Amino acid sequence: MKATSRKQINAACVFNNKDFELAYENHTYSRFKFYLIPLIIVGLILVAFFCLLDDDLFTTNSFITVLAVWAVFIALLVVFFLTLGRFKNFRSYYLIINATELLFIGFYFVKLIVCGNKNFLVMCLEVSLIITIYSMIPNRWLNSLLSSFLLIIAFSVYCAIKPDLLLDRNTNIFGFASIIVFFAINSLNAYHKGYLKRSRYYDTIMLKRLINVDTLTGAYTRAKFNEDINKLIHKARQTGRIFSLIIFDIDDFKRINDTYGHLTGDRVLTTIVTIVTSNKRNADILTRWGGEEFILLLPSTRLNEANRIAERLKTLISEYDFGLDNIVTCSFGVTEFRKNDTRTTLFRRADKLLYDAKAQGKNIVISDVDDFQVIL
């Protein structure tokens, strides 16, 4: 599985599949959004205190100018905080983070120009710190790389127009080399972390699919059914929102296998799943319960609507041309959640209705209404 996950991630450390990358980003955002904002603000404040609380505050001839620079920085943090809270996905978060990092770079150099010269090695250390903070903030690797690279370019240009900042040749080389080393180490570390997180996410999703999705038909498995129905039961008890359940079974499926072979039987199974999937609502959940038996969970659905859905599926299946000599049909049992139901009582009631449908001629829908049954 590791080799497979490597093929899904490209050299830019993002998934080749854009939809998968977006799903990963939103998963990450929903998981870490509660402390993303504090983490980023603490990081930016750390940079600000290191870069701004120096002797400029005491040696500059314009105390008001320094206060104005600080006010601009605080305003940036406030705008960043208020804006970030308005967005609900990671794509918007990226835009804000990238814009904030670029604004901070501009702000940092405006501060240097306004407040005067300072020690070259101290500035090298400040730039290295900013690069480290940028690599720690959750972001796409290429975005962090670009922000750090632009910071280095801007610093180099600033030193070029302020040659009096530079010291002797060996010190200058040491200062720039230290920045490049910080840039390389943090970039490689950010790439490694981003790659590992995506690889683990991919492996986890694939493992969940193996557990939750039937490999033959693409319908969900019992494990997923148990998880989904428990959620629906909990929601029904909390909110009173009723849901319904349809259990259906292919009539005389053993005869199909015996007459046409198991490959044809498999084709019938997958075709029926395709028919149901194409005609169910997005919220409805289809499960292969076992063999030729399926369950369709219908959230926020009362019994009458579930009956109509079952009848429609019965007709669609019986009218479909499977390319066999005999018509393929299904029998259906339909019930809805009751106040004191458990997963077991709900399933047993639906299974009893399906059994009655089989006993009464097959290719019919039987549902329960209160304490009695109605043949549709």
Please, could you describe this protein's structure?
By secondary structure, the chain is an alpha+beta fold. The chain folds into two domains: 2-210, no CATH class; 222-375, Alpha-Beta Plaits. 68% of the residues lie in helices and 9% in strands. The protein has a six-stranded mixed sheet, with helices on both faces. The two termini are 49 Å apart. 27% of the residues are buried. The model is unreliable at 370-376 (pLDDT under 50).
Number of helical regions: 13
Strand order of the largest sheet: 2-3-1-4-5-6
Biggest β-sheet description: 6 strands, mixed
Give the helix/strand class. Answer: alpha+beta
Q: Residue-averaged pLDDT, rounded?
A: 84
Total number of domains? 2
Run of helices and strands: HHHHHHHHHEHHEEHEHEE
From the alpha carbons, calculate the radius of gyration and give it in angstroms. 32 Å
Q: Low-confidence segments, ≥5 residues, pLDDT <50?
A: 370-376
